């Protein structure tokens, strides 16, 4: 009797093994047909008895499981993609390195493309999550971690961004890389490829104008973002420490001085910002953008004359800078407020009337001084509504109704489009 029971037991195991093989085989057929849901169901049924299967069957099972959860790679959830990646890793452990490598590459491509789609749709939190998952699958591709951090910042998920940035610092990530570029003769488009491929294509005459382009360090940007996150969290002391540590580690990184200035600006310490910015300008005296930034700060600090001086310097080096001209006009017109305030305090006496007329004349002088900057903006940028609206109001104040009416008609036409 015992012998019969044993025989029956062995028969049951054989039946289960046969059924298990059939389910795995059928799952593979379902995948070939694109029936991924069916394949998942079959694999779930087979998985409960997988422990008794031989390695060859296990290998097939995990390859099929990875393929079923990856599917076409489009619109796949992170959960399914990570399930697929774990399955492919199991297949690799069991000896199928080729299928595992192909599958993991598919998972990564799906994650990154989905992250790009999310980023384009302004779903930055989802993009950050997928890019980080891509980094976890490919720890050598630290660029994924960098972009995950950037998206987390944009999503205002500062805690997550800070974790990613700190990871990048620990890894010594700088983002410095050399891109090997050449122009495709057939399309005229610039393309990036490996150095060996680029050199081969140029030698074959299919590509021209080879160039080795070095991407500058992102260390300063990473430190800046860490500091700004700390400031956003109200941790100014940590922000200063982070920047000081970065300066000590990267003494030749000029961008860190700009980062320091930005940090103090964010803190509201405008005097310190101005001090550092002037040091930066001394090192780069032909940079119009630096003068412009100093102009913005001076204006915010109530130094209208200083702001105008900086904006004029900016225009010396970047004559096309429309914003500088608009801001000069704004700084000049800011002087009107004091004049109007004084006019409103005057009474009806003869002396007050005389004083009122004098102030009215000064007020018109302010308008006349600002007007040329606005006119230049309109000459260079005929659609600049801010310049049109401000100039129109000035013309009315100066009694030049013909010019004012013309600008009013132009403004109305543009606003009604």
TrEMBL record:
Entries under InterPro entries matching the protein: CellSynth/LPSAsmb/PSIAsmb, TPR-like_helical_dom_sf, TPR_rpt
Keywords, ordered alphabetically: Repeat, TPR repeat
TPR repeat positions: 220-253, 288-321
Protein known as: Tetratricopeptide repeat protein
């Amino acid at each position: 009797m015992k012998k019969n029971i044993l025989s029956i037991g062995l028969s049951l195991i054989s039946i289960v093994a046969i059924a298990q093989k059939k389910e795995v085989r059928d799952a593979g057929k379902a995948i070939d047909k694109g029936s991924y849901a069916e394949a998942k169901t079959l694999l779930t049924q087979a998985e409960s008895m997988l422990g008794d299967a031989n390695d060859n069957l296990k290998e097939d099972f995990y390859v099929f499981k990875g393929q079923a959860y990856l599917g076409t790679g489009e619109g796949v959830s992170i959960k399914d993609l990570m399930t697929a990646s774990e399955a492919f890793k199991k297949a690799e452990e069991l000896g199928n390195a080729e299928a595992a490598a192909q599958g993991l590459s598919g998972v990564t491509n799906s994650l990154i493309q989905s992250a790009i789609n999310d980023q384009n749709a302004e779903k930055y939190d989802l993009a950050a999550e997928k890019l980080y998952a891509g980094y976890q699958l490919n720890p050598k591709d630290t660029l994924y971690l960098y972009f995950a951090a950037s998206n987390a910042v944009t999503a205002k998920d500062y805690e997550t961004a800070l974790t990613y940035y700190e990871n990048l610092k620990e890894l010594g990530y700088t983002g410095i890389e050399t891109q090997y570029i050449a122009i495709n003769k057939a399309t005229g488009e610039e393309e990036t490829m490996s150095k060996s491929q680029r050199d081969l294509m140029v030698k074959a005459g299919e590509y021209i104008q080879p160039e080795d382009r070095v991407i500058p360090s992102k260390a300063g940007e990473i430190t800046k973002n860490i500091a700004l996150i700390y400031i956003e969290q109200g941790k100014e002391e940590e922000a200063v420490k982070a920047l000081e540590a970065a300066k000590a580690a990267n003494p030749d990184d000029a961008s860190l001085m700009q980062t320091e200035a930005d940090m103090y600006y964010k803190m509201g310490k405008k005097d310190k910002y101005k001090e550092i910015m002037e040091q930066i300008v001394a090192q780069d005296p032909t940079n119009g953008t630096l003068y412009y930034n100093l102009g913005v700060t001076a204006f915010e600090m109530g130094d209208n004359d200083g702001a105008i001086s900086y904006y004029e310097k900016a225009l010396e080096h970047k004559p096309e800078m429309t914003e500088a001209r608009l801001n000069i006009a704004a700084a000049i017109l800011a002087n009107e407020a004091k004049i109007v305030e004084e006019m409103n305090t005057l009474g009806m006496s003869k002396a007050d009337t005389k004083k009122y007329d004098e102030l009215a004349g000064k007020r018109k002088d302010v308008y006349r001084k600002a007007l040329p900057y606005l006119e230049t903006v309109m000459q260079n940028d005929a659609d600049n509504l801010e310049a049109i609206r401000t100039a129109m109001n000035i013309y009315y104040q100066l009694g030049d109704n013909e010019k004012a009416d013309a600008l009013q008609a132009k403004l109305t036409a543009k606003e009604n489009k």
